[in-house]
Amino acid sequence: MHKARRVFNLMIEKGCAPDIVTFSTMINGYCKAKRLDKAMELFHEIYRKGQIPDTVTYSTLMQSMFLLGKVSTACELFRKMLASGQVPDLVTCSILLNGLRKTGHIEEALKLFQAMRNSGLELDIVPYSILIDGLCRAGHIEFAKELFHQLSDNGLKPNVVTYRIMINGLCKEGLPDEAYRLFGSMGDNDCLPDSCCYNVMIRGFLRNSYTSKATQLLTEMVGKGFSADIFTATLFMDLIIYSNKSILL
Question: What backbone phi and psi angles, to 5 degrees, belong to 210?
Fold first, then answer.
């Protein structure tokens, strides 16, 4: 960033005024370096230069603020964006939605999601998956299931990420049978389970003491060329160690 800033300053010295793309590129660099203070300095400089930040600039800053845990600051920036006349696009709204979801602000996320739908934005699977994940993490499994089943009504198909989120949520709520039915139905939407889906389902079986089913699914997964990840392998190792201890006792 030090070298990039020197080039940026050289532009100005040579009479080549930076445009909003240049400013946004520098802001993105500072955000990646976790230098939000420097990023905000440039953000304010945009206004001093008589330019207007675009949705990319706002989105970059909001994403960085959420990563640094500055939830209220990110929400305030979003309000400032609206006040400036900038219309948030789907990417900007999804960043805000995901930030609220990750920080546990599920009520605010729900309100934003509803506002997105009311605004006429053409929502894709991404915001739905974000909110379903947030609902599952917050223990609102019935609401998550309802939203999942609404996908087809809105002309959308769940992708492998959406399925994985829902399967994991059901297993955490002690509903492995329902999770496995969903797992088995993935092919109906032309969405075959990947390695991650298999691992999530196997871990769900193990955590709910469905050892035999977990072993069968592991065999099936290996037969398809997938392998157990470190978390699944650890659960199996713990199971083996516990079984051996029980035999010894």
Answer: -95, 65
The overall longest dimension of the chain from CA atoms, in Å, is 82
Q: Which amino acid is at 34?
A: K
**Token couple for 211:** 């050892």
pLDDT in tens, 58-107: 999 999 999 999 999 999 999 999 999 889 999 999 999 999 999 999 99
Residue given tokens 């997105």 in the structure block: 116
Residue 127 to residue 89: CA distance in whole angstroms? 12
* DSSP assignment of 189-214: GT----HHHHHHHHHHHHHTT-HHHH
Residue 76 main-chain phi, psi, to 5 deg: -65, -40
Query: pTM for the whole thing?
Result: 0.87
Instruction: Count helices and strands (H / E) in the chain.
Output: 14, 0
One-character DSSP codes across 39-87: HHHHHHHHHHTT----HHHHHHHHHHHHHTT-HHHHHHHHHHHHHTTPP
Q: Is residue 247 over pLDDT 90?
A: no
DSSP state of 193: -
pLDDT digits (tens, 9 = 90+) for 23-55: 999 999 999 999 999 999 999 999 998 999 999
Q: Which backbone phi and psi does 2 adopt, to 5 degrees?
A: -65, -45
